[in-house]
Design the sequence.
């Protein structure tokens, strides 16, 4: 199939699109490759999506990710996308002009992620709480888990600026009980 044919297939949903969709594609607010998915949303949800992210300059990847996550949440929570985007936590971020758009997008991504993966998010929060309680020197030591807790390992990153402090920091790390290390290395075994 040639490039022109692919373009026609990708753009064919525009024939039944309203002016809000045409304007969004024309302005770059909606990537043409996402039209097919976007057009499956009810008109009110389409408008809510475009309004919420008006001026954000969402990348193709972020548009795709948000559309995917919002439609999944809409299905699982039995709520329209417009209602999800209209929640106070999301609206307050969208309208927070003290934050730039990349900061707002990251905060919204975190909210949607937590709602999409509630068990993983809860496990991550519990792990952070345990890590903070176990860390003898937060200004010098970072505990870094495996992404998504997929591997039973823990990275311990230590930053030293004073050679004399090294001994103290490592001594305090050595005093962390084995049970605590176990909960940090194997977090999903302790739920």
Sequence:
């Amino acid at each position: 199939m040639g490039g022109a044919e692919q373009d026609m297939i990708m753009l064919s949903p525009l024939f039944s699109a309203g002016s809000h969709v045409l304007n969004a594609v024309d302005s770059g607010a909606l990537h043409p490759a996402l039209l097919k998915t976007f057009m499956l949303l009810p008109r009110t949800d389409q408008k809510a999506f475009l309004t919420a992210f008006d001026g954000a300059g969402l990348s193709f990847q972020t548009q795709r990710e948000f559309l995917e996550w919002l439609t999944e949440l809409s299905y699982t929570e039995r709520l329209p996308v417009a209602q999800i985007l209209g929640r106070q936590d999301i609206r307050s971020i969208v309208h927070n002009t003290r934050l730039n758009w990349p900061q707002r997008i990251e905060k919204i991504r975190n909210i949607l992620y937590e709602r999409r993966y509630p068990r993983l998010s809860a496990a991550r929060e519990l792990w952070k709480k345990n890590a903070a309680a176990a860390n003898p020197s937060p200004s010098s030591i970072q505990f870094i888990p495996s992404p998504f807790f997929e591997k039973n390992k823990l990275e311990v990153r230590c930053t030293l600026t004073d050679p004399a402090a090294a001994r103290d920091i490592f001594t305090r790390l050595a005093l962390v009980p084995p049970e605590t290390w176990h909960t940090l290395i194997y977090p999903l075994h302790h739920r």
